Amino acid sequence: MVDNWWLFVCPSEKGCDDPLINPFVEEGNGSGLQKLGCERVIVVVAGDDILKDRGRLYYEKLVGSGWKGKAEYLETEGKDHVFHIIQPDCEEAKTVFKRLGAFFNDEP
């Protein structure tokens, strides 16, 4: 599903191996991530989002790349893409907003 969607959004001969969607192709399966210029990253995905697996893969590759920073992963079960924008008052969105606020403020 994601492959077809991406070809619609950004048609190119590279398909899903385009570095715009897959940062692991050009740098030997993510080894370029160790040069990431920030010290902290939070990857937030919705459990029912078709892009969830890409988010999880990014998190896993980042953590395994030798990057010296701190990475966090937050998955909200039972929700779809941009649910926090469509339903900002739902409890799950409030949880995401609180977690993002804590992350940005460097709180545990």
Automatic annotation (TrEMBL):
It comes from the Eukaryota. It holds the Pfam family Abhydrolase_3. GO terms for molecular function: hydrolase activity. Residues 2-84 form the Alpha/beta hydrolase fold-3 domain. Belongs to the 'GDXG' lipolytic enzyme family. This is Alpha/beta hydrolase fold-3 domain-containing protein. It comes from Linum tenue.
